[in-house]
Amino acid sequence: MDFLLRPIGMDFNDKVFNIIKKIPKGETLSYKDVAEKAGNYRAWRAVGSILRKNYNPAIPCHRVIKSNGELGGYNRGTAQKSSLLKKEGAIS
DNA sequence: CGTATGACGTGCA
DNA sequence: GTGCACGCCATAC
């Protein structure tokens, strides 16, 4: 529960992190999908903003990709992201 | 409190 | 399929 250091309410932030943590190995979800599960599918913008500024080692945020199938971005580098996804079998 | 920005998504040419 | 512009929410300054 490292991410519990978030502001009061943790409505969106907490939900997003919780969802990402629940992503099974080898599976990937899009920012839009995560935002929708978080309660606001229109917040996929905020999802990226939050993850970008708050990278948690307990959060497999590398499993969150764009809806168009692109990996999107990653605080540690897209190369790392693609490598992890390949290792997990999430992508070819 | 207001403005600017961003790991995006969708629409249109 | 590619390129450009607009819109959305949350966060940071």
The named CATH superfamily: Winged helix-like DNA-binding domain superfamily/Winged helix DNA-binding domain
How much β-strand is present in the residues? under 5%
CATH topology: Arc Repressor Mutant, subunit A
How many β strands by DSSP? 2
Mean pLDDT, as a whole number?
87
* Spatial strand sequence of the major β-sheet: 1-2
What is the gyration radius calculated from CA atoms?
A: 12 Å
What's the SSE pattern?
A: HEHHEH
State the gist of this model.
Helices cover 45% and strands 4% of the residues. The protein contains four helices and two strands; from the N terminus they run αβααβα.
Q: What labels would you give this structure?
A:
mainly alpha; 92 residues; disordered N terminus; DNA-binding; Arc Repressor Mutant, subunit A; globular; two-stranded parallel sheet
Question: How does this structure look, described?
Answer:
The structure is a single chain. α2 packs across α3. The chain is mainly alpha-helical. The protein has helices at 11-22, 31-38, 44-53, 78-88, and strands at residues 29-30, 64-65. Residues 2-8 have low confidence and may be disordered. It has one domain (2-88): Arc Repressor Mutant, subunit A (Orthogonal Bundle). Helices cover 45% and strands 4% of the residues. It is globular. The longest helix is centred in the N-terminal third of the chain and has 12 residues, at 11-22. The chain has a two-stranded parallel ribbon. It binds a DNA duplex (13 and 13 nucleotides) through α2, α3 and β2.
